[in-house]
## 1
Amino acid sequence: MAEPDPTRTPKMRADKVSVFYDGKQALKDVSINIHDDRVTAFIGPSGCGKSTFLRCLNRMNDTIPSAKVTGDIELDGQNINSDAVDVVQLRARVGMVFQKPNPFPKSIYDNVAYGPRIHGLANTKADIDAIVEKSLRRAGLWEEAKDRLQESGTALSGGQQQRLCIARAIAVDPEVILMDEPCSALDPIATAKIEELIHELRGRYAIAIVTHNMQQAARVSQRTAFFHLGELVEYGKTSEIFTNPREVRTQDYITGRYG
Ligand code: ADP
Ligand code: MG
């Protein structure tokens, strides 16, 4: 279950990960490997634990006091939950984009420059300018934003705000980008732009995306993991999951038998 491609070393490895909220188990023994030049989609009905699992991968569950995480999670073979890991550094290496675009109430420029500044990735104005431009270009926002860098990020459209949040994640040179239903607040055109962007970013970053939209999972991912009631039911090549699932529960979900 953990490894659809045993010949390769994974970028991230989750081994028997469980999550409890106030003692109530929300995620059960999930083992999964994520590779670095692929998009991995997490699908399944609402409440099945997709966001909970995604948050394990950069320790965002640390911010939820009732949450307790057990099991092992490694990034490049290193245990991310060890005391030796600086969680701020970890979240730069494993960036996150949320369901609702959440730019800082700051300028477009400062939204992108903030991370590189606090991480000391650039010292001079010219260096920061270069990172801002590169990140906005990679996020497909440069042409729309270059003449309004000092305007507030919150003045952008929803789709632009989401691309700004992707630029903000990219600015600190992440290795993995986690996206939790990044298009659910966007219209179809803005959604198509984000999907196109995911295609372009693949190869440079490992990408894990939660989506409740099966068509989106089929379009953007190479690997799909199907969750149900806190369990990882099936994990494999996206094409196989959608055309020839091994498990009855997966089959029922992709044919729309439950929502
Ligand atoms: P999904 O993203 O697949 O919709 P979640 O990971 O959000 O599912 O939720 C999985 C389960 O954990 C659900 O039963 C949900 O109610 C519970 N849960 C999620 N977040 C919290 C939280 N902060 N506190 C308590 N329970 C939570
Ligand atoms: Mg969710």
## 2
Amino acid sequence: MSYDTQPKASHFIDGAYVEDTSGTPIPVIYPATGKQIATVYAATPAIVDQALAAAHRAQKAWGAMTGTERGRILRRAADMMRERNHDLSVLETFDTGKPYQETIAVDATSGADALEYFGGLAGSLTGEHIQLGEDWVYTRREPLGVCVGIGAWNYPTQIACWKGAPALACGNAMVFKPSEMTPLCALKVAEILHEAGLPAGIYNVIQGFGEVGASLVTDPRVAKVSLTGSVPTGKKVYSAAAAQMKHVTMELGGKSPLLIFDDADLENAVGGAILGNFYSSGQVCSNGTRVFVQKGIKEAFLKRLSERLSTAVIGDPMDEATNFGPMVSEKQMKIVLDYIEKGENEGARRVTGGKRLERDGFYLQPTVFADVTDDMTIAREEIFGPVMAVLDFTTEDEAITRANATEFGLSAGVFTRDLSRAHRVIAALEAGSCFINSYNDAPVEAPFGGTKMSGVGRENSKAAINHYSELKSVYVRMGDVEAPF
Ligand code: NDP
């Protein structure tokens, strides 16, 4: 199989590919082999300025179009993404190392879902009329202007669309910066949007490291910043945005709890724990990495978990049978290995996995630790890799208290056959995106985002509209103005 993974140019600005090789070269590494498959160049200040100027210039006319016209373009782009799903999935696999079996099902398709959903909503965005006796107020839902999207490396196509689709539906322009580790996919999203009829300048992609992101955030032409990334980066970006009172959406990290009660359906609970820890080799922000298992079901749970993990097909991500791929980078693999070592040193019991695979690329075994206690590093810090921590609990109250004893609040899940308990426990858990007898579903129709240090705002669903538009209220007086003097 040979694919041309080198993009036409590093950036996509004002409706066209743009190259500027004077920026720092960014090697693109295929995680399954460790080999370089492309080179892009970080945006120079001139490229940053070019992208922001194009977005700023184009936005007013885009915002003045009807929502139906804007939506038609987004929905056309959604259809094109679905038609090109195979090629986009192959590229996503090269960019991230995630198995093609995953990317063909999840990445371009969920990006297309976002374009279709927000394309559909665009025509029905309205303000309201508020009658006040003879006088009245009306509200106008207006675009914010130029929005900046900054992405993490785990879902490059999806993140580019989850930010772009609502922004564009509301009449904004966007400058998107992917993670420098996965720079390829967002360029394809830009290309497709323009083929679908998007006016030049409305969706731009520029490459770069954190400093490029930082220069976008502080530019006065930018009205809003939406970041998907870690909590430390979120703090920096949020405070930089605050200096100019910009709008923000922060989709940050987590250490989410998954509570499995004695009465749970064992196979479903094990399946949920696998999905919530090992999909995308564990590189998912909402993962339920603290798996609290009630003592009565613990041994049966660990036994079935180990059995099912032993059937994971680890290998070439392009092979359709492979369902567990490498880590995104050598750096991330080393971070995870370091956590595994800490788990062992702090006394957790390794049930399975724990090693790097002896082959090219950045492969780790799916790893499970049991007898984990709340104070251990692997129970407190986000690992962002295939490492599950299993903690025991006895009572519901105890599990809730311990589950909430974290600075994070992205997700939470519960497995139980007791209907009342399921809803009671989920209501008590401090998290934004929750699951009952399931884990990690993220349909575009549902709000997605975190509480506490895991974030601010929501992506997807109608809720995202509020984060990409603002209301102007207009008071209309029908009679005379009464002034005191
Ligand atoms: P980082 O926080 O390291 O980076 C996120 C993005 O921010 C990258 O594009 C990065 O650029 C950029 N960046 C870094 N510093 C700055 C800065 N000072 N100003 C502006 N931009 C900056 O996250 P990772 O890419 O390592 O992704 C993993 C993290 O993302 C995990 O914590 C994970 O939980 C979280 N995540 C959250 C999701 C959610 O929806 N809640 C979804 C997916 C991931 P560069 O990479 O070039 O340094």
## 3
Amino acid sequence: MKLNIAVLAGDGIGPEVTAQAIKALEAIAHSFNHTFLFKNALVGATAIDHCNDPLPEETLSLCKNTDAVLFGAIGDPKYDNNPNAPVRPEQGLLKLRKELGLFANIRPVKAYETLLDKSPLKYDIIEGTDISIYRELTGGIYFGEKKLNEAGTIASDLCQYSVEEIERIAHLAFKAAQNRRKKLTLVDKANVLESSRLWRKVVRNMASQYPDVALDYLFVDNAAMQMILNPKQFDVILTENMFGDIISDEASVIGGSIGLLASASVGKKYCMFEPIHGSFPQATGKGIANPIAAILSAAMLLEHFDLHQEATMIKLAVEKALELHLTTPDLNEESPLTTEKVGDFIADYIENPKDSNINFENIHVGQSTII
Ligand code: IPM
Ligand code: MG
């Protein structure tokens, strides 16, 4: 298969982790005889520095003319601490999601057997957790009308949803549940918010089209608690934009590191793959950022194009790296590998799954097994 991929590495650790995802994809292309062509473009704070625009026209048109977008990270502390900044890096990502119509953001959360002791949560609670979060991505409070009065003393953000916006992602979530453990949980705040009541009504009306899926509902505050108390109860979670943002960061604690969580954002026409973590500015350039979330996002890209065997190969390589503790300091304080070395091991394992087991020690002494 031939794929044109736009690479928007973005800010902070974005370029470092994205480089490892590309390495993994190149290894896949090589061993499965595909052609993946990568084209870089600017986004976020880096783009503001270059052309005062967090999503330059050139970047957007590249994304619209490629098969998929590989996204790194966005954000810079110089904007976080300045509420008066006229342009913000995040606007680039939000505009990109909107312009590409990426209404569904899929975030898988898994407790890896080899990492159960890394999570601050108890072994028994997280063991076997396997959740797929369907987060609505182009509506709600993120995109509703924003107001600030002239005196700068009163502000508001509108949370608005239409039936159509709810239905299109709910169909995807129901279908995902059908292919998994057949349970769908709608997370909302229907005891308080009108928009949540609409979500409930629409999703409940759709349930008869998916009779094999058990549908239940949870208020978001309770869901946040249940995520920690008993995450195994969840199969597919469906939720609006902001609740999904919050719940998915919380869920990352189950896996032991936010550096493991990948995501796919899909719409009718376009698709984008990004780790859920941020730009982690304190770690930039130090080689300590975990590239696994970015690499698993590349696996989601392959899955999107029905390259299932290839995606499985990436996941196997990641599992091997975790099993052998060939990981960055967030998961291995004693003898961590650098971002790049983790990427080297994973790419090497993809191409030589038979002997990476033997050669991995070379990485510890600073020699990549890639010749
Ligand atoms: C995410 C991020 C973004 C979001 C930020 C960077 C705008 O937190 O993808 O979860 O809130 O959607
Ligand atoms: Mg977030």
